[in-house]
Amino acid sequence: MTSTNHSPVTVLGLGDMGRALATTLAAAGHPVTVWNRTPGRTDDLDPDRTIEATSVRDAVTASSLVVVCLLDAASMREVLEPVADALSGGALVNVTTTTPEESRALAAWADAHGAAYLDGGIMATPPMIGREGAQILYSGSPAAYEEHRAVLETWGASPYLGEDPGVAALYDLALLAGMYTMFAGFLHGAAMVTTAGISASAFAESAVPFVSAMVPSFREYAAVVDGRDYGGAGQQSLAFSDLSGMVRASVDAGVAPDVVAVVQGLIRRQIDEGHGKDGFARLYESIAHPAPTGAAR
Description:
- The radius of gyration is 23 Å and the shape is elongated.
- The protein has helices spanning 16-27, 56-61, 73-80, 100-112, 142-152, 167-194, 200-214, 217-227, 238-241, 244-252, 258-272, 283-288; strands at residues 9-12, 32-35, 50-52, 65-68, 91-94, 116-122, 136-140.
- With 297 residues, the protein is α/β, with parallel strands linked by helices.
- The chain has a 7-stranded mixed beta sheet with strand order 3-2-1-4-5-6-7, sandwiched between helices.
- The longest helix is centred in the middle third of the chain and has 28 residues, at 167-194.
- The mean pLDDT is 95.
């Protein structure tokens, strides 16, 4: 069974992302009930298809599909605990950013109250919702996913990652880890070149095509990691990848070396353990198997 084209949906939370989700649903023809801790944030929402509930209970009972987009897991519990009985028989879709263990705990809580639980990891900014390139990853109840898939797909691509409700959050945070460290690396580089009078904007003109050209290498690194073939032909060795010169240049320029020093520490650990001739992808082992607390680096 799949959702009808215009099935009602409730959205709890009207921050930038919650508003984007609600707006897109209404534009697709769904009657949308919304609730926000601070009322009166519906002025620019479609008045013909959007109703602002005056209480969480009114919002939850308005639809069999309840989407929660709040600050964190604690705020979800605070909002939903008093109306847990009203969730029975429906589906609860959490797109609040939570850790995998928090998502699993929320799923168990929802199950105990008779609600099917789906966890969603949003891989998009609010303006992207409903547009090409938007993606929300889901895990949890397969029945809820199939029943409401048509609704979920109004926001973007909606891959299902399996029954473990923590996997979508895990994947979400893992992808964001790559994004944030990439951004931090760019900002570090910008800080370095601005000491020579080069603007961050000028640096970006060089950084964007260079980093874009490097991104496909993820697949090569992934194959090496999956095969644990760090000594295979064609890999740049860890000894060659040593970043001590980059760290020194940063310090000499008066720039905090923190970002690159972390990577250098991972490289140094592998070299010190006798793997200097292995490829750069061996950093995975330093990350996946942290050094014991207090161990020398």
